[in-house]
Amino acid sequence: MKKIILMIAVVSTILFSFTGCTGKNMEEELQEEGVKYTMYIGLNDKNSYIQEISTEEAEQMVTQIALQYVDGFTQTTSKGAYKDEAGVVTYENSLVFSFYDATEEQMKNIMDDVLEDLNQNSVLIERENVNYEFYEGGME
Length: 140
Description:
The protein is built from four helices and four strands. The chain is an alpha+beta fold. Strands 2-3-1-4 form a four-stranded antiparallel β-sheet.
């Protein structure tokens, strides 16, 4: 009887150590670590300081550009403001795109095309180290 109990204890210990060998729980194992890129694109033309392309048209243009380089994104519209060199406050509509599973090179390609096609001086890119997961339902 002692041998059976000892055997069960040894087998349980081995199984427990295999399931816990990574030190992570199941939820943590599904998460990935990576960079979340958030791109802010003002829609005022760099020469005229007014919006010459509709927000909807600009959204379509940036969507087409982005999908040449990445597989997906999340897009929202917002409003922004800034002071120029003379202290003049300018308000503008903006597009905000968030990307996961992208590279620095992909982001630079998108921004280069956006700068040219939307006639912009700059695009703001934010980089954030995050843990993320593409959740696909409960595990059974």
